Amino acid sequence: TFNVGLDAGFLDNSLTITADYYIKHTTDILMNLPIPGSVGATSNPVMNAGAIFNRGVEISAAYNRQAGKLTYGVNATFAADRNKVDRLIGGLPLYGGQPTHHGSSTTTTREGGSVGAFYLIKTDGIFNSQEEIDAHRDKNGQLIQPNASPGDIRFVDANGDGMISDEDKQLSGSAFPKFSYGLGFNAQWNGLDLALFFQGTQGNKIYNGLRMDMDGMNLEFNYSKATLNAWTPQNQSDFPRAVIDDPNYNTRVSDRFLENGSYLRLRSLQLGYTLPSAWLRKIGADGLRAYVSFDNLFTITGYDGYNPDLGRTSSILDRGVAYGDEG
From the centroid of its chain, how far is CA 132? Predict the structure, then answer.
């Protein structure tokens, strides 16, 4: 690991800034590697899978000031990290992030790329007529989606082989944010105190696995409210038609279910009051503070699921995949 740091104080030391830049090369990383079923094992063994480069920057700043009876402070943090797979054992890619019991992998880790990057089939709108379906052909004139009907999704034939399959998956983003940040504020005045802390991420993606089931309409159970806007000849919306057998496979693993995972959250808010010592001496107490606190008061995000700050993950290859059980 290579680190370069800078610590600086300004004026009367009311402002301090700390910055660190690092490059880290990790070898012999432990990951579950797939093995042939003919071996007879029931699970993939943990092995030394390869090596990864990480490089990033971390910056923090704090400003504290006193003006008469008012004391206040502001602090901020910023962090950005990029990873690149330097080597994988055998050079073979690793797959992960299966969103549901009936879905294929959503992430691929390969040499030269990022860990757990999303590789998905890309969508290109909805077929609104049979003419649009007939016009969707490869360079040899072959119909790319012969099972499609008006109201089905148009998928991108990325490799040009005249059909839609997992071979058409393309790099579609990462669960790792471009940067994360935090912002805090605290103040004290005449026994009153206030503390706020905001936290967020920017540029990360989330694959909403729950939507595959709730929006899919190919399984016979409760659906989401969004399905009420399904395509019909009279309502040519951007939501595919309702069809149980799903001959076009509209619910396949695709960027249809990939969402922006960026968010800003008020992590904590606390308001307190410390009773004057003169009052406390009358009851023989040294100190007494009453307070009220709140956690996760609000979250600003474009993500449609329960919680953009995903917690549960069985593997780094599953990062950014929402299974519907997030708190």
Answer: 34
Q: What DSSP assignment string belongs to 143-177? A: BS-TT--TTSEEE--TT-SSS-SGGG-EEEE-SS-
Give CA–CA dist 270/250, Å, rounded: 47
Residue with tokens 């969508």: 123
Of 68-72, 168-172, 285-289, the one with minimum mean pLDDT is 285-289
Largest CA distance in the chain: 93
pLDDT at 7: 72
31 compared with 212, residue with greater pLDDT: 212
Return d(Cα 227, Cα 240) in angstroms, integer: 9
d(CA 164, CA 43): 30
CB-based burial, 202-240: b 16+ in 10 Å, e otherwise: eebbbbbbbbbbbbbbbeeeebeeeeeebbeeeeeeebb
Q: What whole-number percentage of the chain has pLDDT above 70?
A: 90
Pairing of strands 46-67, 70-88: antiparallel
